[in-house]
């Protein structure tokens, strides 16, 4: 009995310490994520029938499907986010491969710091920097005129391509880091053996590198897609009035029209879209969510 009691006491102490360590994170999740989502869910399923008088209703969701502007903006945001995620992956993979496999020492550290430098300032400053570069009186249009490419300065802002440039730039780091983590664990001897057996660069990439880096690829795509889908600042500033981004519709309902019920419904529709696309991506890639999140 005397030997069992200290063991049981130590287990209770260990559990208590674990609960104390987890308490701040659990409170943070409860107060800033769970409770606000519950409140938004309740708001989205009621309708105002008189001042301060509400009744259960799904009218907000019906409005979304009946108004072409809303679902057109919804689908446009989803497609643009998928394109931005794909472009980010295509640009980040060579960078991650270079940092993980081709360079060593100070060069490796320098390249990684270069990826971090843009994130030392806020997203607002980074986006305003792009506006200074791309506006009609900005640096890039003046350079094109000086080189003789265009006869007069052209407005490079307020286009879909401009929005994609900003989204890729603001989310690049979140794709590079999980890719580096996945590629660093790839044994170089596997690649050397593949070359010895007659493999070429494309076959090695397709059969060895990509399958090994798949968890990192999926993790990076999930993070970048979620950040891009929920981005408000970059599409609004770089796309102007023609950005047609769904988060702008949510902002309009909450802040401009004070229609919190409609804004909450739009928010849950965006959450459902992101969840569905992430689930589909996991199914198509054959990855498990837990393994993927270990790479992010």
UniProtKB/TrEMBL annotation:
Keywords: Cell membrane, Membrane, Transmembrane, Transmembrane helix, Transport. Residues 74-281 form the ABC transmembrane type-1 domain. The chain crosses the membrane at residues 12-35, 78-99, 111-133, 163-183, 213-233, 263-282. Signal peptide: none annotated. The keyword Ribosomal protein does not apply. GO terms for cellular component: plasma membrane. It is found in: Cell membrane. It comes from the Bacteria. GO terms for biological process: transmembrane transport. The keyword Zinc does not apply. Its main location: membrane. Belongs to the binding-protein-dependent transport system permease family. CysTW subfamily. This is Spermidine/putrescine ABC transporter permease. It comes from Rhodoferax fermentans.
């Amino acid at each position: 009995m005397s030997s069992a009691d200290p063991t049981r006491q130590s287990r209770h102490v260990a559990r208590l310490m674990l609960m104390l360590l987890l308490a701040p994170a659990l409170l943070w999740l409860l107060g800033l994520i769970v409770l606000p989502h519950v409140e938004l869910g309740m708001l989205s399923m009621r309708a105002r029938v008189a001042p301060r008088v509400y009744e259960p209703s799904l009218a907000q969701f019906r409005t979304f499907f009946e108004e072409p502007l809303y679902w057109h903006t919804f689908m446009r945001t989803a497609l643009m986010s998928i394109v931005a995620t794909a472009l980010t992956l295509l640009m980040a993979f060579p960078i991650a491969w270079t940092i993980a496999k081709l360079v060593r020492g100070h060069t490796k550290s320098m390249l990684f710091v270069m990826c971090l430098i843009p994130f030392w300032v806020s997203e607002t400053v980074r986006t305003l920097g792009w506006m200074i570069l791309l506006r009609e009186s900005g640096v890039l249009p003046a350079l094109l005129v000086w080189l003789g490419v265009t006869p007069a300065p052209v407005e490079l802002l307020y286009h879909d391509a401009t929005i994609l440039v900003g989204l890729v730039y603001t989310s690049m780091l979140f794709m590079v880091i999980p890719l580096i983590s996945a590629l660093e664990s790839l044994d170089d001897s596997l690649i050397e053996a593949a070359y010895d057996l007659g493999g070429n660069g494309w076959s090695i990439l397709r059969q060895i590198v990509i399958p090994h880096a798949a968890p990192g690829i999926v993790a990076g795509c999930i993070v970048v897609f979620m950040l891009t889908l929920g981005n408000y600042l970059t599409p609004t500033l770089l796309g102007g009035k023609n950005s047609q981004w769904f988060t702008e519709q949510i902002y309009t309902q909450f802040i401009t029209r004070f229609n919190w019920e409609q804004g909450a419904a739009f928010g849950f529709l965006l959450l459902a879209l992101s969840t569905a696309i992430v689930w589909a991506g996991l199914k198509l890639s054959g990855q498990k969510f837990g393994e993927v999140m270990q790479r992010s």
